[in-house]
Amino acid sequence: MPLEPLARWRLVLGEAAEGALGGCLDGQGQAMDSALSWLYGREEELAGRDVRERKGGLGGSQLTVPEWINDIHTLFPKETIERLEQDAVERYKIDEVVTRADVLERVEPNETLLRAVLRTKHLMNPEVLAVARRIVAKVVRDLMEKLQQEVRRTFSGTLDRRRRSPLKVARNFDFRRTLRENLRRYSPEHKRVAIERAAFFSRTKRHTERWQVILLVDQSGSMTSSVIHSAVTAACLWGLPGIQTHLVAFDTSVVDLTRDVTDPVELLMKVQLGGGTDIQLAVGYGAGLIEMPRRAIVVLITDFYEGGHPDMLVRRVKDLCAQGTKVLGLAALEPDATPNYDRDMARRLVDVGAHVAAMTPGELATWIAEKVRA
């Protein structure tokens, strides 16, 4: 049953409004208020301490994390549940949400939960890891389904309406020719055309020479979303005609994850988030993978806060650009493409020939396609 307006205001304003709005909550409203207070009652403590010290279940409420999860799934609509779970994981760092199997089984799989799993998987026992892996697989599958459509559309050639193709691909369907060639099978009684043989257009190839796309991904804690979308993007690019994809993760060391690109779930479970950042080391490694400089694209996905050697980073990027390699620096690779990066370093890289931007995965695929067929 929908809440009355006064009850809604009481839930929004919290216990402080009890004097003015007391008595407007029924049993369900009181349960909702308890669930909200369990989470947001921690807010007063944030000013005086690091939020990461916060542990679930502390404070006056006797609710445990599993009980709270069960309550909110009973009391609130899906959109509100997702927001509450997001705040529990990201804002209040309640690790139990992602380190207990019984809690994980109840939480809605989404990208927020995936980020939390990647940050805390080192705390998980084998039973919890098995549940977490299923969550990772579900979220990754959803992300890939969305991105694959964009990548296929971006890299598929233009329709050649002068040529027919034996390949039966829906997006190449030639409606006019199909109708014309089957008109003799029109049934006046049923007012339908029986299609005996459908016609399809051919497509031109957008690129005939092989290109290398080298994704260098900063796996520091602030880049978690970009790590996720880099893995999914690499998997979608893998196997495209004329594209050889590499995926390299780095912090103060470099790990080549290319062999795991076809299994982004396994790849993400291997990523170790956190630590320092030595960007120039990763750029040097990527440079060593290049076979044909003028047929290579290096995508550097980082916040540009160089913990190693800033001048060496600029020099390495300058050398890549000078040899004809296209260098793209991405401050963010996620759906909302919200950048948070060292603008001074980004400007220095632009000055030596790199492109710097914040892109969604679909925009990155479009950018690569444009460079490949230029």
TrEMBL record:
One Pfam family from the record: VWA_CoxE
Coiled coil: none
Record InterPro entries: LolB, Uncharacterised_CoxE, VWF_A, vWFA_dom_sf
Residues in VWFA domain copies: 210-369
TM stretches of this protein: none
Domain of life: Bacteria
Protein name: Mg-chelatase subunit ChlD
Organism field: Melittangium boletus DSM 14713
